[in-house]
C-alpha cells in the first residue's frame, strides 16, 4: 500500500511539474508577443491569468487590444482565452468574448453577443495552418448606429503554402438594419433577412519585397464562388479579382440572378438606387435578357472591374472607392 501511495505521489509531483513547465512556456510566449509591440503596432492588456490544471493550459487575457498605426486599424475585446491541452501544444481553442470593437480608418464596428470560438492548428514552426471559427447570435453596430443581426457563421481557412489560403464562409440569417438604404419605408416585398450566404475561394497574398514594382499585386482571390439566398432574389457569383498596393481593384465575374425582374421592380418602387444608375442597369439587364435562351426569370451578367471602374458588359455603371492602405 505504501508503495502504491509513493508511486501515486511521485506521479502527481511529476505531472504537476510537467504542467507547470508547459504553462510557463505558453504564458511566456504570450508575454513575449506583447513585448514585441512597437510604435507601428501597439499591443496591450490589463491582466493575464493562467489556469487549467491538470490537463489543460488556459490563458485568459483581460481587455486585450492591438493597434496598427501604419494601417489605421485596431481591434479590442473584453476577454480573450487561449486553451490548449498540456500534451498537445499544436492545437489551440481561442475564445473571444464581446464586446468587441474594430476600427479601420474613420470607420468602426461594435460587436455584441455570444462568445466567438475558434480552433487553431499550428505547424512545427508554430505558424497557423488551419483556422475554424464560429459564432452565434451576434449584433454588428456601425458608426451610423445601423445594427446588423447575425444568427450564426462558420469561417474556415487552411494554409496551402505560405502565401496561398483556402477559405470558406457560411452565414445564416442576416437581418438588415431598418434604416439602412431607407429600409424603414420598404414594403412587404422586401425581406430584411438574408437567409444564407456562402463564400468559397482561394486567396493569394503576395508579400512585400524590395524589388517589387509599384503596381505589384498584393491580394488575389481566385476560384471565387458566392451564393446569396434572399427572399428578394437568389444571386450566384463566380470569378476572380485582385487588389494592388495602390488600392486598385481589378476582376471579372459572372453574376446569375433569379427573379431579376421582380428584383428590378422593387428597386424602382422603393427608390433604392439613384434614378440615372437604375436606368443604366435596367437597360443593360433588359438587353442581356433578350439575348439569353434561359427562362425570363433567370439572367447571367458579365461584370468587369478595371481600376475600380465597374462595367456591366460594355456599360460603365459605377466606381468603387477604396482606401484600404494594405
Task: Describe the 3D structure.
The protein has two domains: 1-142, no CATH class; 146-326, no CATH class. With 326 residues, the protein is of the alpha+beta class. It has helices spanning 2-35, 260-270, 275-291, and strands at 41-44, 47-51, 56-68, 73-85, 88-104, 107-113, 116-122, 128-142, 147-161, 164-175, 193-205, 217-230, 234-244, 249-258, 298-306, 309-312, 315-319. A hairpin with a 5-residue loop joins β7 (116-122) and β8 (128-142). It starts with a helix and ends in a 7-residue tail after the last strand. It is built from three helices and 17 strands.
Secondary structure topology:
Elements: H1 2-35, E1 41-44, E2 47-51, E3 56-68, E4 73-85, E5 88-104, E6 107-113, E7 116-122, E8 128-142, E9 147-161, E10 164-175, E11 193-205, E12 217-230, E13 234-244, E14 249-258, H2 260-270, H3 275-291, E15 298-306, E16 309-312, E17 315-319
Antiparallel strand pairs: 1-3, 2-3, 3-4, 4-5, 5-6, 5-7, 6-8, 7-8, 8-9, 9-10, 10-11, 11-12, 12-13, 13-14, 14-15, 15-16, 16-17
Q: Notable features of this structure?
A:
single chain, 326 residues, 17-stranded antiparallel β-sheet, elongated, alpha+beta
Q: Poorly predicted ranges (pLDDT <50, ≥5 residues)?
A: none
The chain-level structural class is alpha+beta
Largest sheet: 17 strands, antiparallel
**How far apart are the first and last residues' alpha carbons, in Å?**
67 Å
Instruction: Tell me the Rg in angstroms.
Output: 25 Å
How many structural domains?
2
Mean pLDDT: 85
Q: Helical proportion?
A: 10-25%
Q: How big a fraction of the residues is strand?
A: over 45%
Shape: elongated
Tally the helices. 3
Strands, count? 17
Order of helices and strands: HEEEEEEEEEEEEEEHHEEE
Amino acid at each position: 500500500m505504501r508503495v502504491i501511495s509513493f508511486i501515486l505521489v511521485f506521479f502527481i509531483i511529476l505531472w504537476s511539474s510537467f504542467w507547470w513547465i508547459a504553462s510557463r512556456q505558453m504564458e511566456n510566449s504570450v508575454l513575449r508577443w506583447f513585448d514585441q509591440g512597437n510604435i507601428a503596432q501597439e499591443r496591450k492588456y490589463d491582466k493575464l491569468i493562467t489556469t487549467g490544471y491538470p490537463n489543460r493550459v488556459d490563458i485568459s487575457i483581460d481587455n486585450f487590444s492591438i493597434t496598427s498605426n501604419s494601417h489605421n486599424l485596431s481591434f479590442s475585446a473584453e476577454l480573450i482565452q487561449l486553451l490548449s491541452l498540456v500534451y498537445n501544444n499544436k492545437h489551440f481553442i481561442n475564445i473571444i468574448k464581446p464586446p468587441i470593437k474594430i476600427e479601420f480608418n474613420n470607420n468602426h464596428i461594435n460587436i455584441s453577443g455570444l462568445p466567438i470560438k475558434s480552433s487553431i492548428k499550428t505547424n512545427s514552426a508554430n505558424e497557423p495552418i488551419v483556422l475554424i471559427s464560429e459564432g452565434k447570435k451576434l449584433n454588428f453596430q456601425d458608426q451610423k448606429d445601423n445594427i446588423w443581426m447575425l444568427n450564426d457563421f462558420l469561417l474556415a481557412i487552411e494554409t496551402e503554402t505560405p502565401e496561398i489560403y483556402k477559405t470558406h464562409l457560411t452565414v445564416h440569417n442576416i437581418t438588415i438594419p431598418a434604416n439602412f438604404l431607407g429600409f424603414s419605408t420598404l414594403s412587404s416585398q422586401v425581406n430584411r433577412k438574408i437567409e444564407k450566404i456562402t463564400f468559397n475561394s482561394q486567396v493569394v497574398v503576395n508579400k512585400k519585397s524590395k524589388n517589387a514594382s509599384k503596381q505589384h499585386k498584393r491580394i488575389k482571390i481566385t476560384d471565387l464562388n458566392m451564393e446569396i439566398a434572399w427572399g428578394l432574389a437568389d444571386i450566384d457569383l463566380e470569378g476572380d479579382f485582385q487588389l494592388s498596393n495602390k488600392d486598385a481593384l481589378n476582376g471579372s465575374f459572372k453574376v446569375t440572378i433569379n427573379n431579376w425582374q421582380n428584383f428590378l421592380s422593387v428597386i424602382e418602387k422603393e427608390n433604392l438606387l439613384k434614378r440615372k444608375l437604375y436606368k443604366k442597369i435596367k437597360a443593360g439587364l433588359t438587353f442581356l435578357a433578350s439575348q439569353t435562351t434561359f427562362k425570363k426569370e433567370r439572367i447571367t451578367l458579365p461584370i468587369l472591374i478595371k481600376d475600380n471602374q465597374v462595367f456591366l458588359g460594355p456599360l460603365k455603371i459605377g466606381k468603387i472607392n477604396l482606401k484600404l492602405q494594405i
